[in-house]
Amino acid sequence: MSKSTISTLQLFQMFPDQETARLYLEARLWPQGVSCPTCSGQERITVRKGGYYRCNQCKLDFTVRTGTIFERSHVPLHKWIYAMYLLVTSRKGISSMQLAKEIGVTQKTAWFMLGRLREACGNDTTMLHGIIEVDECYIGGKESNRHDSKRRNLGNGTAGKTTVMGMRERGGRTKAMIVPNSKSSTLTSVILNNVSAGSEIQSDEHAGYYRIEDHYYHEVVNHKAGEYARPGVTTNGIESVWAVLKRGLHGVYHHASAKHLGRYVDEFTFRLNDGNVKVHTLDRLASFVTATSGVRLTYARLIA
């Protein structure tokens, strides 16, 4: 058994029921003691039965679910923890059909749970620094593979596809997001908002990155000339992110609409960062739990 992971059996032994899961979540989300999600007060809290608490200052009845992705969910907390475990340890993700079978809920419930979990993955405000590899990829089916009634007649290549912009810190974190296009103004704005001043940008020869030289030191690898790496300069790191993302979308999820694609991208980047396989499973799980705080996603907003 690897020293950096725990088995499913071990997880079940740790969280066999709702109560053990509740105590674990309270310890992670309230490390300094029970805290009111509205006023953050800790002094005038009354303990009630079944994991309920009463804030006598703002007259709020709450649980550890309040103010998190678990709020107003009837799914037991130990099933939520198992779902997080599966999402963070599955290299390419887990489908709602598979999750439904694993935890004993309907496919619709599992799909909603995964939507909430992905929402928690998208709160990374870290600024990248050092050597940053940048690239963009395009997600969407080939025009030639579409049925005649669904063809957009926009041309081949990137036409009609969703643009995803990615940045990978050499030896560090990865950030990726949906962008409206791959124009120079768009790509430059994204980089300025996510990369610290003084960093080095490494990209391919795409013209959209040329203006970045006004703000950062910029190195280019010319793919059109058959150059993919030279000493100290490459974009292979960020391109490996696209490889995992596309294999997951094609092999596990099969399809992700442009409407929900951003959350799928957040899931994959979270797994590369806080869900890194070099980090112990319990630490990865703890990072996921921390990310659930202050995040809400209602079903109405998910399908809107």
Structure, described:
- With 304 residues, the protein is α+β, with helices and mostly antiparallel strands.
- Helix content is 37%, strand content 14%.
- It contains 10 helices and 10 strands.
- It has helices at 8-14, 18-29, 77-89, 96-103, 107-120, 184-194, 236-253, 261-273, 281-291, 299-303; strands spanning 45-47, 53-55, 60-62, 131-139, 162-169, 174-179, 200-203, 217-220, 229-230, 233-234.
- Strand 2 (53-55) and strand 3 form a beta hairpin.
- The longest helix has 18 residues, at 236-253.
CATH hierarchy class name of the domain at 131-273? Alpha Beta
Beta content comes to 5-15%
The fourth-level CATH homologous superfamily of the domain at 131-273 is: Ribonuclease H-like superfamily/Ribonuclease H
The average pLDDT is: 93
SSE topology sketch:
Layout: H1 8-14, H2 18-29, E1 45-47, E2 53-55, E3 60-62, H3 77-89, H4 96-103, H5 107-120, E4 131-139, E5 162-169, E6 174-179, H6 184-194, E7 200-203, E8 217-220, E9 229-230, E10 233-234, H7 236-253, H8 261-273, H9 281-291, H10 299-303
Parallel strand pairs: 4-7, 7-8
Antiparallel strand pairs: 1-2, 2-3, 4-5, 5-6, 9-10
Helix pairs in contact: 2-3, 3-9, 4-5, 5-8, 7-8
